[in-house]
Amino acid sequence: MGSTSARNGNDGVGRRDLIKRSAALGLISVPAMSFLSACASGGGGADDKVDKGKKSKDNPLAVNGGAPLDFVLFDGGFGTQYAKDAIKVYEGKFPKAKVKFTPTQKIQSSLQPRFNGGNPPDLIDNSGAEQMDMGVLVGKDQLADLTPLMDAPSVDDPDKKVRDTLRPGVLEMGQFDGEKVWIMYYAYTVYGVWYSQKALDSLDAEYPETWDDMLKVCAKAKKKGIAPWTYAGKHPYYIPFSLYPMIAKVGGREVLDAIDNLEPNAWKHPAVKACFEAYYELYKKGYILKGTPGLDHIQSQTAWTEGKALFLPNGSWVENEAAKTMPDDFDLAVSAPSGLDSSDKLPFGTMWASGGEPFIVPSKAKNPDGAMEQLRIMLSEDSSKNFTKSVKSLTAFDGGTDGIELTPGLKSAVAALEKAGENIVNPRLQDWYVALQKEKIGVGGLGEMMAGRLTPAEAIKKIQGYADEAAKDDSIKHYKHQ
Predict the structure, then answer these.
(1) CA distance linking residue 482 with residue 91, whole number of Å
(2) For 97, 98, 112, 131, which has the most beta carbons within 10 A of its beta carbon?
(3) Closest alpha carbon to 70 in 114, 133, 38, 105
């Protein structure tokens, strides 16, 4: 899955909470409620935690060195090797501990029965199309508080707590409505518009900063027989990776905050209307690869790596995920989305970047200390570098790139983050309201509009209706920017 980069300053913690890249890998999104209703009632009363071990300088979380650890990892764009390597470190430290490691793409369907039975794994990478709804897990007290991990000394510097080694905003992203930390986002994702620098150069064009210039580049590409845009048509919740930060650039980040807060008429803001109309223009002018609405994420990425399309909204996991079909001279690059014009509230460079790969420890885990120690190991400089080298993506650990030759996409992502500076946005819909963001806004609204089946005005009306329904739904916990 996704990950990438560093940056930003301090605009108030609520604003900066970095968002997780929910879901983006897999095939069809599974509606979240089936898991949640079951999970909410699940009990089994299995509060049989393993005994604590002896706390020491080398074992600050008092891990029981003889207790087994049950670790389930989402097997997606990042593969499994990085986790296997970190497990080896854990087993080296606790030779009597047996780690049961299960990679899967079926997170929800394979884990639901275990949550229901009160026997969940100790550590879960809750990602992919079958991701469990984090807002509901938190709301139903299904997760353990990770504050002990955050307050533990880091592996590399015992004088530094783990919380002080994280990229800005990552810790806050794991908080929902208070100080407790429920999720550790391990990867770090840069979202934006991805392209081949070689292809752009062949058009004698630069990446466009305004929408008029974007349309000019699109016209050039179309003349040369290249479709200007494609996207994951079957998973149109990829479109927000460039559309949401464009909305913030045009109208200010408070527009996205209002959307996250499910405020009445938030989607009717002029900036939303302007950006929807801009994207709809891509459809109207024939600037989207023919057949895109029927393509999944892999098919759209493959068409793009084969040179059939120029621009693709995506996250930084794409460099690893599309590696098999990406030509050696593709020269992968990413940019923040184009804005409208000079009246935009935020400068060009405004982009979405955030934590990805959400790791959780269930409240009924038998070995929560071992799970947190495994995460502490993964947040060391060695494990972080290993991840970055092997999957071409950054981690939540603030550093870990010294001495590594960055791949073209990663290098471009780091440069984009530097350009963005303070202007990083982190929409929270993706982790606060997974079903709303993916199925309703993504598939039911944006997907229909980009396929030409809804006008921008109709799409906005429909999406505002979905948001209003969610706001009135007492069965889900509601969250707000502080």
Answers:
(1) 41
(2) 131
(3) 114
**pLDDT tens string 324-358:** 999 999 999 999 999 999 999 999 999 999 998 99
Residue 360: which of 40, 74, 75 has the closest Cα? 74
Closest CA relative to residue 135, chosen from 436, 341, 390: 436
The whole-model pTM stands at 0.80
Across-strand partners of 315?
191
Sign of CA dihedral 375, 381, 386, 389: positive
CB 9 within 8 A of CB 422: yes
Query: Of all helices (H) and strands (E), which one includes residue 38?
Result: helix 33-41
- In contact, 372 and 361? CB cutoff 8 Å: yes
pLDDT above 90 coverage of the chain, percent: 76
DSSP codes of every residue in 312-361: EEEETTHHHHTTTTS-TT--EEEEPPP-S-TT-SS-TT-EEEEEEEEEE-
Return the DSSP state at 68.
-
Which domains are seen in the chain, by residue range? Answer: 13-189+355-410 (3.40.190.10), 190-352+429-472 (3.40.190.10)
Strand-pair category, 184-196 with 332-335? antiparallel
Closest CA to 138 of 79, 189, 182: 182
Residue 12 burial (CB < 10 Å; 0-12/13-18/19+)? exposed
Contact of 313 with 447, CB cutoff 8 Å: no
State how far the Cα of 365 lies from the Cα of 69, in Å rounded to an integer. Answer: 10
Q: What is the DSSP letter of 397?
A: B
The string of pLDDT tens digits covering residues 238-260 is 999 999 999 999 999 999 999 99
pLDDT tens, position by position, 410-426: 999 999 999 999 999 99
Rounded to 5 degrees, φ, ψ at 166 are -90, 150
- Provide mean pLDDT across the span 447-462: 98
Q: pLDDT-derived band of residue 90, with 50, 70 and 90 as boundaries?
A: very high
pLDDT at 47: 58
> Hey, how many other C-beta atoms are within 10 angstroms of the C-beta on 342?
8
Question: Which DSSP helix (H) or strand (E) runs through 216?
Answer: helix 211-223
**Token reading at 326:** 């990406």
